[in-house]
Design brief:
The protein is α/β, with parallel strands linked by helices. The chain has 2 domains: 2-179, 3-Layer(aba) Sandwich (Rossmann fold), CATH 3.40.50; 182-310, N-(1-d-carboxylethyl)-l-norvaline Dehydrogenase, domain 2. The protein is 44% helix and 17% strand. It contains 13 helices and 12 strands. Strand 11, helix 6 (158-170) and strand 12 (175-177) form a beta-alpha-beta unit. It binds nicotinamide-adenine-dinucleotide (NAD) and 2-oxidanylidene-2-phenylazanyl-ethanoic acid. Residues 7-12, 29-32, 62, 78-81, 83, 86-87, 90, 105-106, 128, 131-132, 134, 261, 274 line the site of nicotinamide-adenine-dinucleotide.
Length: 313
């Protein structure tokens, strides 16, 4: 399959590399000049569970895409949430009436942005429990295991979504075709809505957060706010099941020693965060529905204050 990775950062490098290695025709799109230069000169170098893999994958800056005169079968969206619109605006030339887009970003509401560029029948939503990091330009650090759940948002996209499930699984990405991806998106948003903001403000990894006596109440309260708002969108979250799902991430032998991507963004790299698309999205929806979401409101404000203090960009 001909696949464009829209945002070849940490996660885009993982998906691009694994899909390239399993025989797909992959192109990477990214705006980071040093990353483009390094990948063109040395290939994409990955520390893949301790083994070094070097993959020669074409990479283009967004402004180069229009002159490529190429269209693709699948675009995998893996920018940060606040970068998604600008990315799609610059890669319109890759899209035709058979191109599908799968969105694997964390957070809520990305289909509203993508549907400005492709028909809803061509949009797939997904969530992933894979993780990834970048050690520097052109160098990815890919440890551990994960999975992907995905589904078309309109019935017409079902056959293509099942095909994507197959090629992801062939690439070792452990994909499952979901029968309720919107539920999965909200359930994953609970993982990020609890771990990402709290680990960022507390400057800690997931195990450190999970082993504090006071954390359980904070996490359960945030999950309750997500579940109350989700119910108004006809998504029923089992709060106990979601808490246990979040708690599985505390294990230091699993992803526990990982710093969530929001911590990597703000604390490590001084970048603005995705908080407005996670807890902030629940706060806004809650406000519109007259549902109180005090923990989400407070956590969103704390993260914005920290962005201001650190002069994040
Ligand atoms: P990242 O910042 O490493 O990668 C995003 C890339 O997109 C960057 O390299 C950036 O240069 C590029 N980009 C952004 N706007 C662009 C534009 N207009 N044109 C070209 N390139 C552009 O982020 P990431 O950690 O890979 O996260 C991507 C998404 O996956 C986020 O929603 C994140 O929450 C989610 N996620 C991350 C992890 C993780 O472990 N890193 C795990 C699960 C989900
Ligand atoms: C994560 N991390 O989603 C993934 O860092 O944004 C992130 C993220 C899977 C399980 C636990 C945490």
């Amino acid at each position: 399959m001909k696949i464009a990775i829209a945002g070849a950062g940490a996660m885009g490098s993982r998906f691009g590399l694994m899909l390239h290695e399993s025989g797909n025709e992959v192109i990477l799109i990214d705006q980071w000049p040093d990353h483009i230069k390094a990948i063109r000169e040395n290939g994409l170098i990955a520390n893949f569970n301790g083994e070094t893999i070097v993959a020669q994958i074409p990479i283009y800056a967004p402004e180069e895409v229009a002159s490529l005169d190429q269209e693709v079968d699948l675009i995998i969206a893996l920018t940060k949430a606040n970068q998604l619109d600008a990315m799609f605006n610059s890669i319109k030339s890759l899209i035709n009436e058979t191109t599908h887009v799968i969105c694997l970003l964390n957070g809520l509401g990305h289909e509203d942005v993508i549907s400005k560029y492709v028909a809803k029948e061509q949009i797939l939503l997904g969530i992933t429990m894979w993780t990834a990091g970048l050690e520097g330009p052109g160098k990815a650090k890919l440890f551990g295991t994960g999975e992907v759940e995905l589904e078309n948002i309109e019935p017409a996209g079902a056959d293509f979504a099942k095909k994507v499930t197959e090629i992801f699984t062939e690439a070792g990405l452990n994909a499952v075709y979901s029968d309720n991806v919107k539920h999965s998106v909200w359930r994953k948003a609970c993982v990020n809505g609890t771990l990402n903001g709290l680990c960022t403000i507390l400057d800690c990894n997931i195990t450190d957060l999970g082993t504090q006596a006071v954390s359980e109440n904070m996490i359960r309260t945030i999950i309750h706010e997500f579940a109350t708002v989700a119910l108004k969108e006809n998504i029923t979250l089992d709060e106990e099941e979601v808490y246990q799902h979040v708690a599985t991430t505390f294990d230091p032998n699993g992803v526990g020693l990982h710093h969530p991507s929001m911590h990597q963004d703000l604390i490590k790299n001084n970048r603005l965060t995705e908080i407005d698309y996670i807890n902030g999205a629940v706060s806004r929806k809650g406000q519109a529905l007259q549902i109180a979401t005090p923990y989400c409101d407070f956590l969103t404000s704390l993260v914005h204050a920290k962005e201001g203090i650190l002069k994040a960009k």
